[in-house]
């Protein structure tokens, strides 16, 4: 295992300490339990957004805390769900009196622990809604998931709901934005190499020198198919084809096209993927209205990418363009 | 070789096409010769900034074109200098009548070709100044370099000079900012793995499963020492020690601390490095006034990091905070 880490058991704590030191103006970090909280939380009268999940997907979620996006993130250990206590603490820390939205990726552990935390928060008089994101079309049911896995659409939901909350909209409407994003976004990913969890110290799965895994999960869960490595343009077709067909996205649709790196893939490759995705969509009459290219929901050092498409309307485009000031995503302010 | 590419000879063109499609509002891309130019160039009356160099270091330089940073970037093929014609074309495309600053990393091919382009531009009546960045303390003379290599300080110089130019300062003063950054910045990097150029298709250098290279260059040029892999905290000391001693940075100094990923290193690891760098500097009485953590000057998919320190004063801090709107670096607007 070659990583820039110290002891495997200290990875998450040390990463959070680094995040706190680097972005003191945006976030505060608690180490017991682990929480990344907006520096000026709670924002009175604003719906608060809380997300979380296992670590290893940085910048998601801790890097998305700040004005115009999340109010708090609850990082678990690497690829491990946060605990109900932790989620409850974050919910209480950011509640500004207008209720709290939990944005939950569809992994069974996350769902159970967020549900329990929501119950506990409600008992303390905090209004909580939860929306589960499940956008990965690769497989139905997976290693840690019943139904579809929650992947790239989570990044988009956090940004879009953050903008809606910043406008002062009520909890029900902010939750509706999240449900809408989940309804109209689809994703699929692929890996050229495995990730290596710090505690295991060896690849999560074995992939031959000439192989790739299509439909990979962000914890290395099996995908649809293992194949010989192929040119980037073919890989785009293998990912974007099922994504487009699933919703389906149709000629005349405008989309937000998100090309995501899984942690070990350099930007030069992501732009090559984006180029072909744009052509692929244009060939089907689908217009790219907005885009995001970079490594935003990762799987440690896994080499590979994922493609997420979200059907855009004027309202979503407006929310996307709204200012956001977080360690991982920033524009307009 | 496992990469998200098509034919190796198409990598740079396809990456540039992707960049252009993704960021049409910020940049225009020319394919003959390769140029990334600010969408609203030339900006009349503003000093224009041109940089460039081999591709494979993305987002540098093409991703740093936009308001508050570069006016144009000239990408060569992977790890190959841009040609004089190409640099001349970029210089002419962005000249707004107030002169053009060439920011050149210290590699012999880059220097020669930028010098020739500057001569040609001057013959056409364009005022050109050039500043060479040479901040890498690892080795004196290297595979492609006489003297020190130009690395991380280039990113900082492009941002800081971009801010000075945006304020309407004259060419001489903008060039002075660049010289100042070069005088007061120092860097050093390390690799856990080699990069693989698309044309070669195999690792540029061999590194054992338990080895790392301290002082690596951004094209895989040899560093100071090959060692057994070590904990992140020890690696920080191996990089930051020589950097601090070289200027030297002293107790009471305020610095901009830049932790850079080389392309294959995930953000979770960079924050662990940043945490220790902050502690290392604090232990020497050096205050981190500003910071940058992410992959900004890369070496294809190389796993590893570099550390750059720039001695800050109020003026540089102010220029750093000024708005910047580029594909790769964005804040304040």
Give the CATH H-level superfamily of the largest domain in chain A: Dihydroxyacetone kinase, domain 1
Series of H and E elements of chain A: HEEEEHEHEHHEEEHEHEEHEE
**How many helices of chain A in DSSP terms?**
8
Helix-strand category of chain A = alpha/beta
The biggest beta sheet of chain A is recorded as: 6 strands, mixed
Oligomeric assembly: homodimer
Shape of chain A: globular
At the first level of CATH, the class of the largest domain in chain A is: Alpha Beta
Report Rg of chain A: 19 Å
* Strand numbers in spatial order across the main sheet of chain A: 1-2-4-3-5-6
List low-pLDDT spans of chain A: none
Structurally, how many domains make up the residues of chain A?
Answer: 2
The third-level CATH topology of the largest domain in chain A is: Rossmann fold
Labels describing this entry:
homodimer, about 325 residues, alpha/beta, Rossmann fold, Hypothetical Protein Tm841, Chain: A,domain 3, 2 domains, six-stranded mixed β-sheet, 8 helices, about 30% helix, about 25% strand
């Amino acid at each position: 295992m070659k990583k820039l880490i110290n002891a495997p058991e200290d990875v998450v704590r040390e990463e959070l300490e680094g995040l706190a030191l680097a972005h003191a103006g945006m976030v505060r970090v608690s180490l017991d339990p682990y929480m990344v909280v907006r520096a000026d939380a709670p924002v009175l009268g604003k719906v608060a957004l809380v997300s979380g999940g296992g670590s290893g997907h940085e910048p998601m979620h801790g890097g998305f805390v700040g004005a115009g996006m999340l109010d708090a993130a609850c990082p678990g250990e690497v690829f491990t769900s946060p605990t109900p206590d932790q989620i409850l603490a974050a919910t209480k820390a950011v509640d500004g009196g207008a209720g709290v939205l939990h944005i939950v990726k569809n992994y069974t552990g996350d769902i159970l622990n967020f549900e329990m935390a929501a119950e506990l928060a409600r008992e303390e008089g905090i209004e909580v809604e939860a929306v589960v994101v499940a956008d990965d079309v690769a497989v139905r049911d997976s290693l840690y998931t019943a139904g579809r896995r929650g992947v790239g659409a989570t990044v988009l939901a956090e940004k879009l709901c953050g903008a809606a909350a910043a406008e002062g909209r009520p909890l029900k409407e902010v939750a509706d934005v999240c449900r809408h994003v989940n309804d109209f976004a689809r994703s699929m990913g692929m890996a050229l190499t495995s990730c290596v969890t710090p505690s295991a110290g060896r690849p999560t799965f074995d992939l031959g020198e000439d192989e790739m895994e299509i439909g990979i999960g962000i914890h290395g869960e099996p995908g649809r198919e293992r194949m010989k490595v192929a040119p980037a343009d073919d890989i785009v077709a293998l990912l974007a084809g099922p994504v487009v067909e699933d919703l389906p996205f149709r000629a005349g649709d405008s989309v937000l096209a998100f090309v995501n790196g899984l942690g070990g893939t350099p930007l030069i490759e992501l732009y090559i993927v984006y180029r072909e995705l744009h052509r692929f969509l244009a060939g089907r009459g689908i217009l790219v209205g907005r885009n995001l290219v970079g490594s935003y929901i990762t799987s440690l050092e896994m080499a590979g990418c994922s493609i997420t498409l979200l059907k855009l309307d004027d309202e979503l485009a407006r929310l996307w363009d709204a200012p956001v000031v977080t360690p991982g995503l920033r524009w307009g302010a």
